[in-house]
Amino acid sequence: MASIFLKIVAGEIPCYKIAEDEKHLAFLDVFPLVKGHVLVIPKQEVDYYFDLDDDAITALNLFAKKVAIAIKKAVPCIRVGVAVIGLEVPHVHIHLVPLNQMGDINFSNPKQKFSPEEMTKIAESIQQYL
After folding, report:
1. Is the separation of the CB atoms in 19 and 130 below 8 Å?
2. pTM for the full model?
């Protein structure tokens, strides 16, 4: 059964797309920890990060780096944190989280809610730096 992320890749479920190439997709987390929280995924469905081969893991991280640089320019933050947890969706994904304090990347925190208009504006502000 396809994960929710494969359905996003296929266009069956909409997303607030940040960036895309032939092998990767970055989009806003719809349950963000903070404003500008982005998920970066390989389009190939692989459940566990360390099951990616060396070329795939390198390419995914280089793609994520470009997105993180754009996030840092678009969203007021000290830096962009990175987390790979992989328990909630059986598809590799990297969390890019704008950080102003350590607690910003605490996944136990309540999730933020932004209107569709705010999400679109956040996505567009990050896209302009890619």
Report:
1. yes
2. 0.96
Tell me which fold the domain 4-127 belongs to.
HIT family, subunit A (3.30.428)
Query: Structural domain boundaries of the chain?
Result: 4-127
Catalytic residue numbers?
A: 93
DSSP the chain: ---HHHHHHTTSS---EEEE-SSEEEEE-SS-SSTT-EEEEESS--SSGGGS-HHHHHHHHHHHHHHHHHHHHHS--SEEEEE---SSSSS--EEEEEESSGGGG-TTSPPP---HHHHHHHHHHHHTT-
* Dihedral angle sign, alpha carbons of residues 106, 110, 116, 121: negative
Can you give the pLDDT at residue 15?
A: 98
pLDDT in tens, 40-49: 999 999 999 9
